[in-house]
Amino acid sequence: MRHRSLGGLAVGAVGLGAMPLSIEGHPDEARALATVHAALDAGVTLLDTADSYHPPGGEPGAGERLLARALAAYGGDRDAVLVATKGGRGRSADGGWTVDGRPEHLRRAAEGSARRLGTDAIGLYQLHKPDPAVPYAESLGAMRELLDAGTIRLAGISNVDGEQILLARKILGERLVSVQNRYSPAVRDAEAELRLCAELGLAFLPWSPLGGISRSSLDGTSAQEEDPRFGAFHRVARARGVSPQRVALAWLLARPGNVLPIPGASRPESARDSALAAELVLSEAELADLGV
Predict the structure, then answer these.
(1) C-alpha separations of 192 from 75, 100, 286 in Å
(2) Please, what's the b/e burial string for 168-182 (b: 16 or more CB within 10 A of its CB; e: otherwise)?
């Protein structure tokens, strides 16, 4: 797999978003572990989770514990794997999502995440979402304290606008290495933030990167009518003999700056297919057809 830089570390150009492995509807333990192992075997070295990735009413950190078990059981090389997690959100009993950016909460959350991951220092810790009830600078101050204490090695932020990125850069300096916003063929609202990250040298981790793409050729695209807005992704996929998901990820890798997609997967086949996108280089004509 091709590699890209994240905070000075070389990671596979396509990561694995582990959210589907631990929230409601998640696969059983055996398939979840097999999915993580398939991604690692395919060259994925960036695994992304959060303490809030658990079913409603469940115990926080289910996703982190799952990744810890997956890595402990993995027979291959684990030294290059970077586990990224997030803090500042939670789940309500009815399945909703909460936000808590209080410094005292973030400190406790990071310490809990480190324990569940079985590490002295979290590789990449991301502030999951700005809390409207807490000044963003105060939440970022807690991140800086975590960096200074060695609880986390690198910092990232998520679900942010340009002003918040600039504020985070001011408070965290060069130890801010990434921004994780929603971005996909269907949702391009973060175009300005993507370009700002390119200017600042920050990695951009699009979450839900496959939005707008109907089910892949692994399932048979004939089983679902293609959305005409994204027909180009299917045309290129058919011409290349690959899944439209793989084309979508290759399109993301061709966007400006240092983009590291983190597609979710809940089965080994999907994880392997996503990883192969790192080797798919689209032509200028194909990119033009896809709307770059």
Answers:
(1) 41, 26, 23
(2) bbebbeebbbbbbbb
Angle ∠(6,11,15) on CA atoms, nearest 5:
100
Supply 126's token pair: 């991301």
Question: Residue 154: beta bridge partners?
Answer: 124
Q: Where is pLDDT greater, at 218 or 143?
A: 143
Q: What is the pTM of this model?
A: 0.94
Among this protein's residues, is 53 annotated catalytic?
yes
pLDDT tens profile 180-200 = 999 999 999 999 999 999 999
Cβ(63)–Cβ(262) below 8 Å: no
Query: Which of 53, 125, 136, 183 is labelled catalytic?
Result: 53
Spatial distance between the Cα atoms of 187 and 210, rounded to a whole number of angstroms: 9
The pair of three-digit structure tokens given for residue 219, joined into one six-digit string:
């399932």
Rounded Cα gap, residues 143 and 103, in angstroms? 8
Q: Decide: 158 and 97 in contact? Cβ < 8 Å.
A: no
Q: Which residues are bridge partners to 258 per DSSP?
A: 203
3-state secondary structure of 224: coil
pLDDT in tens, 42-92: 999 999 999 999 999 899 999 999 999 999 999 999 999 999 999 999 999
Helix (H) or strand (E) holding 157: strand 152-158
